[in-house]
Structure formats: C-alpha cells, structure tokens
Amino acid sequence: MSPRPTTGTSISGHGLWHPPTVLDNAELCAAFNEFVGRDNAKHADEIAAGTREPLKESTPEFVVKASGIHRRYVQDKTGLLDPERMCPNIPDRPEEVLSIQAEYAVNAAKVALASAGKVGEDIDLVVLGCSNLQRLYPAIAIEVQHAIGAHGYGFDMSLGCSAATGAAIQASQAVQLGAAKCALVVVPELTTPHMNWRERDSHFIFGDAAVALVIEPTERAKPGSWEILSTQMASKWSNNIRNNAGFTDRCDPATRDNIDKLFHQHGRRVFKDVVPMAERFVLDHLGQHDLKPSQIARYWLHQANQSMNELIAKRVLGRDATRAEAPIILDEFGNTASAGSLLAFSRFNEDLAAGSLGIMTSFGAGYSLASLLLRRR
After folding, report:
1. Rounded to the nearest 5°, which phi and psi values hold at 185?
2. Which of 109, 152, 237, 278 could connect to 363 by a Cys-Cys bridge, CB 3.0–4.6 Å?
C-alpha cells in the first residue's frame, strides 16, 4: 500500500444534542390516521363518485418497514399530533433573542468544545451547515460565533443532506490554508418545520437534532483525535429531492402555500439513483489511498433510510455489513438530514483503537455527495 497522504487537520472534538421531546411511531400514526379519517369524511361524496382517491392510513409497522425509524426527537409535538394543524408549534422569537437554530448549534458546540478541551475563545472560524436555514442573513454562524465568544469569521453553508460533511471539508481546508487556527462546525438540523406531515409516504421521516465538530491542525490536536486523511465532494443535478420554499414565495399568492414549499421526493427514483452513485463514490475515495473496503473499521453513512444504508454498505463490502461496521441511528433519531453521518460518528467512534480507519459519507439532494476519510491517532 502506498503512503497515505493527509490534510494535516484533525477532528479533535465532537458533540451531539437533541431536544428532549420524543415522538414515537404509534402516536405519530394515531394522529395521522385521525387526519386521514377527517379528510376522507370531508370528501366522502367525491370518493364515492370515484373522482377522488381516499387517503390511506399509516401504521407503525409500515413506518419501520419503509425506513427503519422507530422514534425521533422533535422540537414540539403538540402541533404534530393535532390533526387540524400537523405542524410544530414554534413561537417566533424577538430579534434580540438567540434564534432557535443558533440555540441548537450552541448546545452541540458546548459538548464538542468540552470534548476537544477548548473554549469559545479558541475558535476563529465557525462553519454552519444544514439542509434548511431559518433565515438568510445575518448568517446564523455569526450569531453562534458571537454566542460562544469565538473570534475570526463565520459563514453558513447550504448543500442539502451534504451540508454537514461539506461544512467539515470547508473547515478543514481553511485550517490547511492557514485561514483559521481552530474551526468549529455546527449542524443545527431543525427539520420538522419543513416536513409535510400529511403525506403518507414521508410523514414519519424527519427528526430534530444538532451536532458539532472541532477541527484543528493535527500537530496541535489531542491524542485520540481523528486525523482527516483526505476529503472528496461531488454533485450531479437532480430534481428528485426538493424543497421550493424561498423568499420569493410571497410574490405569487396563488402558489405561496403549495405543498412543494415543503420537503418532497420521488423516493424510488432516489433509491435507484443514489445507491450505485454512493457505492462508486466511496470506492473511488478508498481507491485514492489503495485501501480495500475491509480495511475500513467503520462506515458512518448518511442516515436517510435503513434499507439504503444497508444496501450501500453491502455493495461496498461485497457482503452484509455488521452494525459495528456501519452503525444505524435512524431507529432513534429518524432522518436528521445532513446531520446523520456526523451524528453516527459522534455516537459511534470512541471504541475504535489508534490506527483505525473510518469514512464519513453523505449523499442527498442535489444530488450532492461528500466524504472524509479518517484515521484514529
């Protein structure tokens, strides 16, 4: 095997945070089915006339089979369990108060900073990546920077479900270039507000959570940190996962409240497209280091769908992956958009010995893909 190159940067701290409220499949489906019953009753004449298809109920068994999800953490479930609302109740905050996504980011950042043995003043770059930003400006990253007492600069990054890995790559590159001495990556995935909770095929997908990483030069990182050997990114245009919400919505009242302003996807097309794409992407990254898939101790894959993750891991390894090799957090967290692979890393990395190799990989809307090849120091 040829000598492995390195970026000279390491993940020296990590931390995850989630809201305390748990929403399980049973209560979610009960609320959804109440909505279905009311809607079908409202349109009973059209359904009887054959001009309208009745809505189908959902079950916990269907949710698990379709996704592997058993529960998820949510900011609020009172609104989600209200058949007349089916949207979280999240009061707007005054401008002088920390925004909710900044709060998510700060909560995860505190854990990551403590893990790295750092304080806010040690940070001179904050990169915030997530699938949806609650506002365009001022950048939420700068709000986080201010809240933790960091220096330097910060910026937000949007790249669908590759926003978190992409943010980590941008932070690593900034440290390599000397533009930052110690970077903080924050991923405040508040996903439940952009979910369509009335759509049977996806009403169960998302959960809310935040994760953070501290990235600094390897020479200054503590023992046990994860050295970033190399990174890789790719994108290919696709309309199969989309959210059309934006600042021009108010300009067309006729479409302002359409369901395309929420998350929507062509799930079967996504599965068919992404599995071979992700397999090739991972194998290409390993090939740059003359590494065989069996040499990777852990695959921290994007947590979108359990069947998808299992199939990608199987195609990469040439056999079924064990849970130790490719951990799943979907059953507890649901799909947390771009945070998934970082959450899997944060939850499942401490048991690996020095010299172990792992790869953190995302694949999502865009299509966008990103990966970081890591080695335990």
Report:
1. -105, 125
2. 278
Q: Write down the residue that tokens 């110690």 correspond to.
A: 182
Q: b or e along 154-187 (b: 16 or more beta carbons within 10 Å of the residue's beta carbon)?
A: bbbbbbbbbbbbbbbbbbbbbbbeeebbbbbbbb
Domains of the chain, earliest start first: 226-376 (3.40.47.10)
User: Residue 152: which region, alpha, beta or left (left: phi > 0; alpha: psi -120 to 50)?
Assistant: left
List the end-to-end C-alpha distance of the chain, in Å, as a whole number. 19
> What's the whole-number mean pLDDT along residues 312-320?
98
Dig out the tokens for 261 from the structure: 């302003």
Residue 12 and residue 302 in contact, taking contact as beta carbons nearer than 8 Å = no
Task: Quote the CA–CA distance of 11 and 346 in Å, as a whole number.
Answer: 11
Structure token pair of residue 195: 């979910």
Active-site residue numbers? 161
Q: Per this entry, what is the length of the chain?
A: 377
- Position of tokens 């998302």? 206
The predicted-structure confidence for 149-161, as pLDDT tens digits, reads as follows 999 999 999 999 9
Residues whose CB falls within 8 Å of the CB of residue 257, separated by 6 or more in sequence, listed in order: none
Neighbours of 224 (CB within 10 A): 14
Name the residue type at position 316: V
* Distance between CA atoms of residues 118 and 123, nearest Å: 8
* Percent share of the chain, pLDDT over 90: 96
Strands of the sheet containing 368-376, edge to edge, are 153-157, 125-129, 183-189, 209-217, 9-17, 226-235, 368-376, 357-364, 298-301
| Cα–Cα–Cα angle for 203, 207, 212, rounded to 5 degrees | 155
Kind and range of the H or E run holding 11: strand 9-17
What is the pLDDT at residue 181? 98
Q: What span, in angstroms and rounded, lies between the C-alpha atoms of 200 and 55?
A: 8
Q: What share of the chain is helix, strand, coil (3-state, %, to 5)?
A: 40, 20, 40
Nearest Cα to 266, choosing from 241, 230, 291, 294? 241
pTM: 0.96
Q: How far apart are CA 317 and CA 328, in angstroms?
A: 16
Reduced to 3 states, what is the DSSP secondary structure of residue 40? helix
